[in-house]
Design goal:
Strand order of the largest sheet: 3-9-8-7-6-4-5
Number of strands: 12
Number of domains: 2
Mean pLDDT: 83
CATH topology of the largest domain: Aspartate Aminotransferase, domain 2
Order of helices and strands: HEEHHEHHEHEHEHEHEEHHHHHEEHEH
CATH class of the largest domain: Alpha Beta
Number of helices: 16
Distance between the termini: 63 Å
CATH superfamily of the largest domain: Type I PLP-dependent aspartate aminotransferase-like (Major domain)
Strand content: 5-15%
Helix content: 25-40%
Low-confidence stretches: 293-317, 354-383
């Protein structure tokens, strides 16, 4: 009976409250954008969203969604291998794979599911996973599902990575996979994939990168951390999301070598036993690929968002725009020098959560800013 456990749940909630860590949802009443309106509050500058290219409310994407409702319907009501695959899904998988330079891609309902269905499918009790200590929660949870040996190396510490790879070799691991975020969302720093790939290859290990906070806007043409680090073709597996720079709706994917994708289609449980993304989302994503993810279009979006005197290529992480914004946050421990994701350490979590409580009608939300919000902030400040 619930009455037997209720007090325990209440005690856990109280401990969260006492630590100042209860998460509260801020309700907005407008579409996602550089400016949004908070329920019963003013219009605010939005520095919270992962809408890095400002595509979350793009009119062409909205029109694509409307058209797909007429042509392909609202939902699939089936998993992929029964009758839940439309031409839109296959088209999107093909475009993602081509753009990111992989053999094939496989869609999931989120990148969390992509990571959740990856490790246990590919790695068994005779294998090993070597993971960065600050990897995303979805990688951590995905690894927990696998029976493989697990090793965690200190964040971006390649000496420790080698030590953990030595341990993996010592246990006789058949397959070894090194897993890392591309851009680490909490700190904004970028994994040195060139060094990581060099080390992994010397040990005969595969490399997996979660590039959710890089796909579409990191790298000279938006192809993410592998492009930025010059290792396209050397990463074996890349997971990412449609829920951030690529429109912000939902959906995730895994790009990989053909044999890996083929095996995921046969055995990855989140793929096999969940409906895939709805047709309007797939249609928007396909449009998004053509709109924002060609050789030059990702940079073109950047050009559209910033005033001419503040323009710099996507690959230039020491841009005038970043320097200007960093100067506005003097005194904070920020990660501007590493990536286009400015991460500012405000202090303990409890303190940071007090800066913008949901009922305080703040004048801006804070977190990694979408480029459109950054542009609005910079342009108004310059004027």
């Amino acid at each position: 009976m619930f009455t037997n456990v209720k007090d325990g749940f209440l005690a856990e909630l109280k401990s969260i409250d006492d630590a100042g860590l209860r998460k509260r949802e801020r309700v907005i009443t407008t579409p996602q954008g550089a400016t949004i309106r908070v329920a019963a509050g003013p219009e605010v500058l939005n520095f919270c969203a992962n809408n890095y290219l400002g595509l979350g409310n793009h009119p062409r994407l909205i029109e694509a969604a409307k058209r797909s409702l007429d042509s392909h319907g609202f939902g699939m009501a089936s998993v992929r291998f029964i009758c839940g695959t439309q031409d839109l899904h296959k088209q999107l998988e093909g475009e993602l794979a081509r753009f990111l330079g992989f053999d094939d891609a496989i869609l999931y309902t989120s990148c969390f599911d992509a990571n959740g269905g990856l490790f246990e499918t590919l790695l068994g009790e005779n294998d090993a996973i070597v993971s960065d200590a600050l990897n995303h929660a979805s990688i951590i949870d995905g690894i927990r599902l696998a029976k493989a040996h697990r090793f965690r190396y200190e964040h971006l510490d390649f000496k420790d990575l080698k030590a953990k790879l030595d341990e993996a070799k010592a246990v006789g691991a058949r397959r070894i996979l090194v897993a890392t975020d591309g851009v680490f969302s909490m700190d904004g720093d970028i994994a040195d994939l060139k060094t990581l790939c060099d080390i992994a290859e010397s040990y005969g290990a595969m490399v997996m990168v979660d590039d959710s906070h890089a796909t579409g806007f990191v790298g000279r043409t938006g192809r993410g951390t592998p492009e930025h680090c010059g290792v396209m073709g050397r990463v074996d597996i890349l997971t990412s999301t449609l829920g951030k720079a690529l429109g912000g709706a939902s959906g995730g994917f895994t790009c990989a070598r053909q044999e890996i994708v083929d095996l995921l289609r046969q055995r990855s449980r989140p793929y096999l036993f969940s409906n895939t993304v709805a047709p309007p989302i797939a249609a928007i994503a396909v449009t998004r690929e053509r709109l924002a993810l060609s050789d030059h279009a990702a940079a073109s979006f950047y050009f559209l968002l910033l005033p001419p005197d503040l323009l710099s290529p996507l690959g230039d992480l020491g841009s005038p725009a970043a320097a200007f914004l960093e100067s506005a946050f003097t005194g904070l421990d920020s990660g501007f020098a590493a990536s286009p994701l400015p991460a500012s350490a405000l202090g303990p979590s409890a303190f940071a959560s007090l800066l913008a409580p949901p009922d305080a009608s703040p004048e801006l939300f804070a977190s990694p800013p979408p480029l459109s919000a950054l542009a609005a902030f910079l342009y108004d400040s310059e004027r």
